Amino acid sequence: MNSTEDAEVNEACAVESLDRRWYLVAVCGTSLSVFSIVSNILISKVLLSSKHNHFYFLALLALSDCFLSLNYGPVIAMDIIKDRLKLRWLSNLYIQYVGPLLALSQTSMTFSCYLIILATIERYLITLRAKCLGTFRQCRGLSALGMFVLALMLRAPILFEMQIEQNPECIGEISEYYLNLSPIVNTFWYGTVYRFYIRNIMTVLVPFALLAILNYKIVKILRAQQRSAQMFRFLSSDHKTKIRSATILMVCIVFSYLLANILNVGITLWEYVAFQSTQTGDAYAFYETCTDVTSVLYILVCATRLFVYYLFNQEIREAIKPLVCHSASAPRKQDYVTVTRSFDSSRQIGTEIDAVAIAIARRLLSSELVFGGGGNSKETNDSFVISNHHATSGDEDNDDTDDDDEIPHMV
Fold it and tell me: Are 379 and 33 in contact (CB under 8 A)?
């Protein structure tokens, strides 16, 4: 009889370790988090420089993603590792620290989402050529601080929603202590109104819908402007390329976020409709798998941002190359463009502004040759130096600040 009871106790205290969760969350997720840490440190180093201050929100996003990736191993992966290794001291240690780190991780995840929203709004104002763009850019630091405070208010209380309890039937076993929800979760105002409705709406549903709408509007406006050529008619081809590149980059970032969070939106709606069904039978295994895939997808998005930046933005790509490849040559200077051509050629060089400058220079030099008595004018092949609109990196930053009301020079 005692042996039967002991067997039942051992079975009740046993910890299950699934290979599916081990390879997906612990092995694959941890590897991605390590790569994400390295890549986001590199991104933040590039974007935090004064030369790229127009990528302010993306620089903060890289720092937030780096912090989130640092916490993935201790918070998410360690939950699987401790069950796999079956070490009692490791399990007890995990229970002690997971509450604060989980609250910080969730805050960082929500803050990253809000930074993407701010960057998308900024890109939308640039694409729309809105007059309020200058005011919005002056308040970027305040906006980021406000989003961080909001994320903290929505996610930090997770710390008070968990409590450590002891299982009297498993004294001395690995599952002696476990985490359980605190009584505050069962109250109406906190558990139902705040925790379920407000938090899920503000951190999952609203950001998803808002980013989808903004992304659609940006793509729609950009296509219309490309057809009518209204936006780029008075800009140099180089500046036009930078604006389009930065816009495409932002669209790709938002699109990757939407793909990674569509499963999370489905889980949230499932919990809203029938939460009890997620905790019973085969539905729980499917629910658990979906939550694991969601966490890995988010880390995958963080880890692949470097490739997205490198592929879709030439300015960031040229800044990253010297850091990755030590043998890379120095960045190409675009201070001046020297155009060499003979007087009898009719081919246009550069933009319309460049063509006007060349025509004026020809008229002046032709007059000088006629009235000044140049003897060998027919054999002369002259060179003209045409100054670009953005001569140096310092001038480009000044243009970004001064001309926001007319033509936004921010990429």
Answer: no
* C-alpha to C-alpha distance for 204 and 261, rounded to whole angstroms: 8
Mean pLDDT of 81-104: 93
Burial classification of residue 340, based on how many CB atoms lie within 10 Å of its CB (0-12 exposed, 13-18 middle, 19 or more buried): exposed
DSSP notation for 129-158: T-TTHHHHHHTHHHHHHHHHHHHHHHHGGG
* pLDDT for res 347: 47
Tokens of 379: 């054999």
Mean pLDDT of the 55-76 span: 95
Question: Which are the contacts of 20, defined by CB distance < 8 A and separation ≥ 6?
Answer: 289
Distance CA 284, CA 248 (A): 39
- How confident is the model at residue 405, as a pLDDT? 40
Task: Find the mean pLDDT for residues 254-274.
Answer: 86
* Structural contact between residues 194 and 35, judged by C-beta atoms closer than 8 angstroms: no
- State residue 386 phi and psi, 5-degree precision: -110, 120
Q: According to the model, what pLDDT value does residue 108 have?
A: 95
The burial class, CB within 10 Å (0-12 / 13-18 / 19+), for 183 is exposed
Write down all domains in the chain, each with its CATH number in brackets.
11-324 (1.20.1070.10)
Cα separation, 113 vs 125, in Å, equals: 19
If phi > 0 it is left, if psi is from -120 to 50 it is alpha, else beta; for residue 235 that is beta
User: What pairing do the DSSP bridges indicate for beta strands 383-387 and 336-340?
Assistant: antiparallel
Q: What is the mean pLDDT of the chain?
A: 78
| Coil vs helix vs strand at 391 | coil
Radius of gyration of the chain (CA): 29
Say if CB 340 and CB 348 are below 8 A apart. Answer: no
Closest to 38 in 3D by CA, of 311, 318, 296, 306: 306
For 132, phi then psi, to 5°, come to: -85, 5
| Poorest-pLDDT segment among 4-8, 27-31, 208-212 | 4-8
Helix (H) or strand (E) holding 181: strand 177-181
CB 111 within 8 A of CB 148: yes
> What pTM value is reported for the model?
0.74
